[in-house]
Amino acid sequence: MISVKKLSFSYPKKPWLCEEMDLELSEGKIIGLLGLNGAGKSTLMRLMAGLLKPVSGEVSFEGGATFDRSIPFLNQMIFVPEKVSVPEFLKVKEYSSVYQDFYSGFDLDRFEKLLSEFQIIGNQRVSNLSYGQQKKLQIAIGLSTGAKLLLFDEPTNGLDIPSKSTFRRVLSGSLQEDQTMVISTHQVKDIENLVDQIIVLDEGKVKLHADLEELENQFVFSQGPQAPDQAVFVESHLLGAQYIVKQPYGERNSGGSPDLELLFNAVIAGKLAGEFLSTQNQATS
């Protein structure tokens, strides 16, 4: 689907945001893209969308460079940026018709259902919608295009709590086998129990790219009055500690769903990525 090979990118006179980066994203996955502010999440999304040109290396979609912005690629990719820019005079349904004309797989029935879910009226002017409603409109359009590659940058920013719940509900189980969705966010809790894979960026590198199911099988994410001595990573709090330990050899599926915030903090602290990669190497050697 998406292949990133030896990708390097920086803005003029700025540090590298991507440096010799390699990634392979497969179909049928919802992927959470995490990183500290300024880690390059939005930049990587724009490189995937073909909006930025790599300094070196390549980003390709089904064999073609994304920066070429070919019509077949654009017809199969939708990028929903964090900050939306909307037309001043068009109504919601007039605005959506622009996307219907371009995306051959646009599902109008699904779009209208999503408008209802998000409580958006089709004859409203887009410019009269609140920021949160404009975000929900863009999400509804993105999910209705039928595109194979969906890139959502901070989609839950500006959404209230009920809208975040609706976003998770409509997204859960909605991805087709030939689709891939990448969600860039710093609001980790918003994508828990939603994503299949996680990517953590730090210092221009991919510090972790893993299936959550595999992490779940190899590590236990837990909490208690005190962390065990063999814990890979520990965060103390007033009532005790949250911690990650290796799954006992030969045991699987006893760890429960990974705590993404704890996972992210462990990777940024350099406590988990090496551990996980070493177990992966042992498993494949």
From TrEMBL:
Q: Name one Pfam family in it.
A: ABC_tran
**Is the Transport keyword given for this protein?**
yes
Domain ABC transporter, by residue range, is 2-228
Q: Which GO terms describe its molecular function?
A: ATP binding
In which domain of life is the source organism classified?
Bacteria
* Acetylation among keywords: no
Keywords (A to Z) from UniProt: ATP-binding, Nucleotide-binding, Transport
Put simply, this protein is called ABC transporter ATP-binding protein
